[in-house]
Amino acid sequence: QVQLVESGGGLVQPGGSLRLSCAASRSIGSINVMGWYRQAPGKQRELVATITRGGSTNYAGSVEGRFTISRDNAKNTVYLQMNSLKPDDTAVYSCNVENLLGGRFWGQGTQVTVSS
């Protein structure tokens, strides 16, 4: 049973933009926090951004001012708009969702490569 479906990754030149989307199935239940994490080769997974049901956001310092997280509660979907991308942003980006019962769910990950 597919619960999180991500899309929007790809190859982009430095300075370019990408928009990631993650749609959660209704089987997850009522969602509290939605977020994006990333893992670069040889590095630990790190938080990129989170957004609560009420719209409060939190960003990693390395992306603040360049990335914007948003969500559509009616569609159970979270977005990550990434602007001014840098080679250091290259990673597998994964969606994470936490429901009101404390259950956490992960997407399969989508590759983002920033290179000229």
What is this structure, in a nutshell?
The protein is an all-beta fold. It has no helices and eleven strands. The mean pLDDT is 95.
Explain this structure to me?
The chain is mainly beta and 116 residues long. It contains no helices and eleven strands. The strands form two sheets. Strands 2, 4, 5, 6, 9, 10 and 11 form a seven-stranded mixed beta sheet that branches. Strands 1-3-8-7 form a four-stranded antiparallel beta sheet, with no helix packed on it. The mean pLDDT is 95.
Q: Layout of helices and strands, plus pairs?
A:
Blueprint: E1 4-7, E2 10-12, E3 18-24, E4 31-39, E5 46-51, E6 57-59, E7 67-72, E8 77-82, E9 91-99, E10 104-106, E11 110-114
Parallel strand pairs: 2-11
Antiparallel strand pairs: 1-3, 3-8, 4-5, 4-9, 5-6, 7-8, 9-10, 9-11
Note the main attributes of this structure.
about 120 residues, 7-stranded mixed beta sheet, 4-stranded antiparallel beta sheet, 11 strands, mainly beta, about 55% strand, globular, about 0% helix
